[in-house]
Design brief:
There is one protein chain. It contains five helices and no strands. By secondary structure, the protein is mainly alpha-helical. Helix 2 packs parallel to helix 4 and helix 4 runs antiparallel to helix 5. It starts with a helix and ends with a helix.
Length: 143
């Protein structure tokens, strides 16, 4: 039993180390992205249920997209930390971009269910998306 615990602990430590290397610290931005992704997925399923249009294929594609978003954030962190040896500027920009996308999608799902959307919320999400875009553009223009 002790040997199994040692192996399990080694596996968990290895996975944790890989996650830390790929995504870095668990920042508030990363937490916000994960929350937005989960809420967007749940709201998408809710819309599909209301429309009587539930599809496991569409749901699976949604999960794959969320995984790819996390992979892109991971690539941005690796570029920042291990290639550019810089602060997480690219990772922050990519994360903000996807927070905005997920937030806008969540708002669209809510609106599709007839829920009124605060105008200020839409403005903030659009500004966040623009901020993510402009940070990416300014970094590519520097090179």
């Amino acid at each position: 039993m002790e040997k199994i615990n040692g192996i399990f602990n080694g596996i968990v430590a290895t996975i944790g180390g890989m996650i830390g290397w790929i995504w870095g610290d668990f920042t508030p931005l990363l937490a916000a992205l994960i929350v937005c992704m989960a809420l967007d997925y749940i709201s998408g399923v809710a819309c599909a249920i209301v429309r009587k249009d539930v599809s496991s294929e569409i749901g699976f594609k949604g999960i794959i997209k969320k995984i790819l978003i996390l992979m892109l954030v991971g690539v941005a962190h690796v570029l920042d930390a291990h290639v550019l040896n810089s602060t997480p500027v690219l990772q922050s920009a990519v994360t903000m971009f996807f927070i905005a996308n997920e937030g806008i999608s969540l708002v669209e799902n809510a609106a599709g269910l007839g829920i009124p959307i605060p105008k200020k919320m839409l403005e903030v999400l659009k500004q966040l998306k623009l901020k993510g875009d402009s940070t990416e553009k300014s970094e590519s223009e520097e090179k």
